[in-house]
Write a structure and sequence with these properties.
This is Alcohol dehydrogenase GroES domain protein. By secondary structure, the chain is of the alpha/beta class. It has helices at about 40-45, 90-95, 135-140, 140-155, 170-180, 195-200, 215-220, 240-245, 270-275, 295-305, 325-335; strands spanning about 1-10, 10-15, 25-35, 60-65, 80, 85, 105, 120-125, 125-130, 160-165, 185-190, 205-210, 230-235, 250-255, 280-285, 315-320, 340-345. The chain has 2 domains: about 1-140 and about 310-345, Medium-chain alcohol dehydrogenases, catalytic domain (Quinone Oxidoreductase, Chain A, domain 1), CATH 3.90.180.10; about 145-285, Rossmann fold (3-Layer(aba) Sandwich). The strands form 4 sheets. Strands 3, 4, 5, 8, 9, 16 and 17 form a 7-stranded mixed β-sheet that branches. Strands 12-11-10-13-14-15 form a 6-stranded parallel β-sheet, sandwiched between helices. A two-stranded antiparallel sheet has the order 1-2.
Length: about 350
């Protein structure tokens, strides 16, 4: 098969690669679309920590073309979304149903070959039927489930005022779920006018460009100096990670979804906000719960099927698999601003 193979840091090439071979409980998925996750560029361009050569890509949709003799839950020809996370099923966290916190998991697109390829081997337990959902949209089910994992975990209520710090794909998906939960007052913060425009179109009531205005001052003004009920950190920035502590009201909640890429040093004021305001801080990792892969995935598919969520406007770039290097060169050189990038074999 052809695949986008990573041979070293910032060295991804379109080459021939051995076809995957399935076991008795596996399926082979012909990849129709694979999204570029926000975690992919830092790992591919700067710091890959798994074995090489590797095939990245974990936001996968496609068609079942082969299956092992013990596979009963899916048929050849079925259109599926791939669940990239493979928990061990044996550790204490798995036995409690906390699959996202598995102590010994595997991951497609990391330590296992992923979706930047024509075919990928997947355990049969890790594919979900998508019916007639478009393949490009289905490739976004994984990040949609990640966003829902955070929203369900922080438990917004009617009447809450919520700030989303970072209005990229993750922040936009959080915004969509907040609207479905009945949250009406949503403040979107970013440094990109394009991403803020997208957030506005998706239902944000107020947008703040942090390059032009101090978001902490603006949010406190908007909330009569009280702060928001909930702050979502979706940028993975040391700046927004600290700002969340300053914009949240007393007894408020903060949901940390963005990945930390460097050490975080808090100001005295920010740290004191944690205990002086008795804040609740919660982190959310991945998107999995019991029964595996969890309601985050089943609800995401259901809401896409009934058209309650529309993700099409978020896709800004499509690259054929043969142009995988050009896609990551564009990201590395910051030649164009992008939202969701889809790789199409």
């Amino acid at each position: 098969m052809k695949a986008g193979v990573l041979f070293g840091v910032n060295d991804i090439r379109y080459v021939d690669f051995p076809d995957p071979e399935y076991g008795e409980d596996d399926v082979i998925v012909e990849v129709k679309a694979c999204g570029v996750c926000g975690s992919d560029p830092p790992r591919i361009l700067k710091k890959w920590k798994y074995n090489l050569p590797a095939i990245p890509g974990h936001e996968i949709s496609g068609v079942i073309v082969e299956k092992g003799p013990k596979v009963k839950n899916i048929e050849i020809g079925d259109r599926v979304a791939v669940v990239p996370f493979i928990p061990c099923g044996k550790c204490d966290n798995c036995l409690r149903g906390n699959f996202s916190l598995c102590d010994d998991y595997d991951m497609l697109g990391a330590n296992l070959y992923g979706g930047f390829a024509e075919y990928v081997k997947v355990p049969s337990s890790n594919v979900l039927n998508i019916g007639d959902i478009d393949f490009e949209i289905a490739a976004m089910i994984e990040p949609l489930a990640v966003a829902l994992h955070g929203v369900l975990g922080i438990r917004p209520t009617l009447g809450d005022t919520v700030a989303i710090m970072g209005s990229g794909i993750l922040g936009q998906l959080v915004l969509l779920w907040l609207k479905i939960c009945g949250v009406g007052d949503i403040i979107a913060v970013d440094i990109s006018d394009k991403k803020l425009a997208e957030a506005k179109m998706l239902g944000a009531t107020t947008c703040i460009n942090a390059k032009e205005k101090d978001p902490v001052e603006e949010i406190l003004k908007l909330t009569s100096n009280k702060g928001v009920d909930i702050a979502f950190e979706c940028a993975g920035s040391t700046i927004t990670q600290e700002q969340c502590l300053l914009i949240t009201r007393k007894k408020g909640k903060i949901a940390y979804l963005g990945i930390a890429y460097s050490d975080i040093h808090l100001s005295e004021k920010a740290f004191e906000s944690i205990f002086r305001k008795e804040l609740t801080l919660k982190g959310f990792w991945n998107s999995y719960s019991a029964p595996f892969p969890g309601q985050e995935w089943y609800k995401s598919i259901s809401y896409l099927k009934n058209k309650s969520i529309n993700l099409e406007s978020m896709i800004t770039h499509r690259f054929e698999l043969s142009k995988i290097k050009e896609a990551f060169d564009m990201i590395a050189n910051k030649r164009e601003e992008y939202n969701k990038i889809i790789i199409i074999p």
